[in-house]
Amino acid sequence: MRNPEVVVIGGGPAGSSCAILLAMRGHRVVLLERESFPRFMIGESLLPAAWDLWDRLGVRDRIEDAGYPVKRGVLFRIEDTEGFHEFLIRTDEFPQYFVRPFTFHVDRAHFDRMLLTRAREVGVDVRERHNVKDVIFDGSRATGVSYLDPEGQASTIEAPVVVDASGRRTLLATKLGRRYANPDLVKAAYYAHFEGAGRRLADDGSTVTDIHSTEGGWIWYIPLRRDVVSVGVVLDTAYVQAAPRGRDELFRHAVQNDDQISAWLSGARQCFEIKAIPSISYLSHSFVGDGFLMVGDAAMFIDPIFSAGVMLAMRGAEFAAEVISRGLRSGDVSSETFLPYEKRIRKPIAKMHKIITNWYDIMASRDRNHIFRLSQQAPLMREQLVVLLSGGYDKADMDVFLRESNSAALPG
């Protein structure tokens, strides 16, 4: 492609979605991905609010036909002062909010490749095994990128706009000193896939994401295609440091102490060595600048507890594509032009940050007055909770939610 208008760094959900939407608006886009797809990635549990975006991206039919397990909610197994209790949040309790009140558990290698294939179809110049090493600046304005091609040869691409979708590499945020650890969420994650494990199935064959509290944190259990499950343990870093253990021991200690999950994994085959993310939550002071934007995990990551990562990445990519297109057509690609994207995506980020920190407060205090129990007695609170956990960040009113939770508190 000659004279690209946008160069996108990274081909994950954020990068592919932004590139697709820009190309569909008629813009010339080059996407550089350092790996060759399919490639493994964590973050397999999606949210129902994505259906309208899948339509706009042109991938809805492919996602429906992929054979992913249907997800109809989340089951929280929480320990409080009265012991362990289970709370099922079904996303189809309030179907009026979304195109469809269910979603899928996806294997990300397949899902991400599907999006990258779609990007090629709409005219994006997708180049895999092209490793972006740096963003080029003229003063404070980004003007392109330098990269290594598959043969290791160095080259550059110039473009009026650079989109950093480099994921946890956070290429631009690191370069500019904007990335910082989230002081409210100092957590580490350990995870693996297992084949031949048990799973929770409804009568219609649908699944849920299991979230179980455990000593020092919580466990996720996500059924995938082809008899595979994703299992992860998220632990407070202080807990990890208090009794130093290796990643395998930390993971197995949590799993073995959960009767349900250990039973499901009995006889299962572990597909790969346990992987670790030592510092899972981080933020950036700003997501935009002259000639550049950061989207998805390249901008920030809060926590995996409510499966918001992919949703926020793709929704943010859509917001970014809107301001980029407007800026290219007007000839103004300054930070002022791009700032509405940041303001818009920070609103759902703030909502999720509140409810996520509330989750960790629940586990730390073991107070029975937690949002999942209270939502059983307060219908309006229940509705807001379901909408929020389904990804309806623009439909959920946090003030109403918090007011209802305060009024529903149990005596004693």
Write the topology of this structure.
Elements: E1 6-9, H1 13-24, E2 29-33, H2 51-57, H3 60-65, E3 70-80, E4 83-90, E5 103-104, H4 108-121, E6 125-128, E7 131-138, E8 141-148, E9 154-158, E10 161-164, H5 171-175, E11 179-181, E12 187-195, E13 207-214, E14 217-223, E15 228-236, H6 237-242, H7 247-256, H8 259-265, E16 269-270, E17 275-277, E18 282-284, E19 288-289, E20 292-294, H9 309-330, H10 335-365, H11 371-374, H12 379-389, H13 398-407
Helix pairs in contact: 1-4, 1-9, 9-10, 12-13
- The CATH architecture of the largest domain can be named as 3-Layer(bba) Sandwich
CATH class wording of the largest domain: Alpha Beta
Query: How many discrete structural domains?
Result: 2
Rg over CA atoms, rounded to whole Å, is 21 Å
- Say what the CATH topology of the largest domain is: FAD/NAD(P)-binding domain
- Helix and strand composition category: alpha+beta
* Inertia-based shape: globular
Distance between the termini: 67 Å
Percent helix, as a range, is: 25-40%
Range of strand content: 25-35%
Give the averaged pLDDT, no decimals.
94
CATH superfamily of the largest domain: FAD/NAD(P)-binding domain
Q: How would you classify the quaternary structure? A: single chain
Which consecutive residue ranges, at least 5 long each, have pLDDT under 50?
Answer: none
Number of strands: 20
Q: What summary fits the major beta sheet? A: 9 strands, mixed
Tally the helices: 13
